[in-house]
Amino acid sequence: MGTDVLVIGGGNAALCAALMAAEAGASVTLLEAAPREWRGGNSGHTRNLRCMHDAPQDVLVDAYPEEEFWQDLLKVTGGITNEKLARLTIRASSTCRDWMRQHGVHFQPPLSGALHVARTNAFFMGGGKALVNAYYRSAEKLGVQIRYNAPVERLEIENGRFVAAWVGNERITAKTCVLAAGGFESNREWLREAWGQNERGEWPADNFLIRGTRFNQGVLLKHMLAQGADPIGDATQAHMVAIDARAPLYDGGICTRIDCVSLGVVVNTEAQRFYDEGEDFWPKRYAIWGRLVAQQPGQTAYSIIDSKAIGRFMPPVFDGVKADTLPELAQKIGLDVDTFMQTLNDYNAACRPGTFDHTTLDDCHTEGVSPAKTHWARTIDIGPFYAYAVRPGVTFTYLGLETDETSAVRFGGVPSDNLFVAGEMMAGNVLGKGYTAGVGMSIGTAFGRIAGTQAAQAALRQGAPA
Ligand SMILES: Cc1cc2nc3c(=O)[nH]c(=O)nc-3n(C[C@H](O)[C@H](O)[C@H](O)COP(=O)(O)OP(=O)(O)OC[C@H]3O[C@@H](n4cnc5c(N)ncnc54)[C@H](O)[C@@H]3O)c2cc1C
Question: What pLDDT does residue 466 have?
Fold first, then answer.
């Protein structure tokens, strides 16, 4: 006997879908590839979701109206976004928190280190891990059948309709299905293929680290694309940040953050600067540095600060390389000392005096050096000095399945009437490129809830159990 709704995946999008479908009265089975102790995918690593609000709302200060949220998305994506689905996400983000609370999610005011997002982002008490645990508890209470160690390898699809899913030799039928199995960021072969070889003969993706789960291998995404599901997005587009080069290959999470880029300079392995370190605040700056480092030789760079920066950023978990003089620092990190000193001397000479203020886009900038540093530019001259090696850390990929406001998977432009998609597997509809902090969870929550509702309705319309 099959189930009404089969949900594939075990992160935020899948859980939102399962909860909504169960609340609507459908019988639900959820298949999570990971074992129980690794359940929850990338969602377990999150901290917050971006929320629209017209006036102060519980943990959110001031207002963050629809139009401002939309303009932020438009800016970071460079217009590569579906306005209808983006606005749907934005509106849903203003009403989802009460429902989340009903399922055991608690919110907290942002910590002082996250001031720039106090207005826009609601933080989960206990982080994404607590959110995921709360949703699993609630799903169990609602009777959702949860199966761990259940990676789906392929689906049976007939004329654009879901028939069954295969886990190993087991065939699992259901009336409807929600795909919420993440992107393909954990699949290093696929990343290698997507990024190709650069002009230096390097395969950049070989040096990428994966910030989240190892289970998002993109098996279902690849399968669905091969089955003719309409694709969205570009395989090289992803949320990528510059993280501690010592981070583990998978699941390093947020504690691999190196957040002193704007307080110093960043040089590549040739000891050259390559981008304006003072371009913007954290939420907007954060997601571009992974790609910038990916374009550098060896996909490695060094964030360099002096002692003036200490105490002004969230300290990384592991200490940086420390030296009393800049030449000694260069030597310790293996850079050519003369070139490094030339770069630092040129930068220091270009710094113009201003009023340093790390909380505003201040007037401390450089003149006569390329690339310029447009804010927070102060000389690097008071030891001890510190260096942190960084590498690209992939958060999640944007290639996915095209969908619409019903969250249906589409084949040749025709929406399936019983196969739906949510979360990273369709985030590329809203995020063609770029990122604004917290929108991953806004998309997964909005479309997970829609997919669950639609899947339940479609199943219940069919009457007797499958
Ligand atoms: C370190 C880190 C921090 C982040 N912080 C934030 C944040 O603060 N705010 C924010 O909005 N976003 C954040 N993100 C992004 C966010 O995690 C994602 O946008 C969101 O979690 C996606 O949810 P999802 O359910 O689509 O994917 P996931 O949570 O990754 O879930 C995918 C699930 O599918 C399962 N799966 C994969 N393949 C199969 C298969 N074949 N069969 C069965 N199951 C399968 C996986 O095991 C996993 O459970 C962060 C990501 C990382 C890595």
Answer: 45
Q: Taken in order 125, 127, 133, 134, is the CA torsion positive or negative?
A: positive
192 part of a folded domain: no
Q: Is the dihedral of CA 284, 289, 290, 292 positive or negative?
A: positive
pLDDT(59) > 80: yes
Q: Is the pLDDT of residue 139 over 80?
A: yes
- For ligand 1, is residue 30 a contact (CB within 6 Å)? no
Structure confidence at residue 350 as a pLDDT band (50, 70, 90): very high
Residue 328 belongs to a domain: yes
CA of 48 to the centre of ligand 1 (A): 13
Domain-ending residue, one of 393, 417, 440: 393
The predicted model scores a pTM of 0.94
Residue of minimum CA distance from atom 18 in ligand 1:
440
- Alpha-carbon distance of 209 to 167, in angstroms, equals 28
Based on the fold, state whether residues 69 and 140 are members of the same structural domain.
yes
Asked if residue 386 and residue 253 are part of one domain, the reply reads: yes
In 3D space, the residue among 207, 168, 167 whose CA is nearest the CA of residue 191 turns out to be 207
| 346 and 321 in a common domain | yes
Average pLDDT value for the chain? 95
Please check whether residues 283 and 420 belong to one and the same domain. Answer: no
Report if residue 204 sits inside a domain.
no
Same domain, 114 and 159: yes
Ligand 1 site-directed mutation target among 8, 42, 397, most atoms within 8 Å of CB: 42
Determine contact, residues 219/152, Cβ cutoff 8 Å: yes
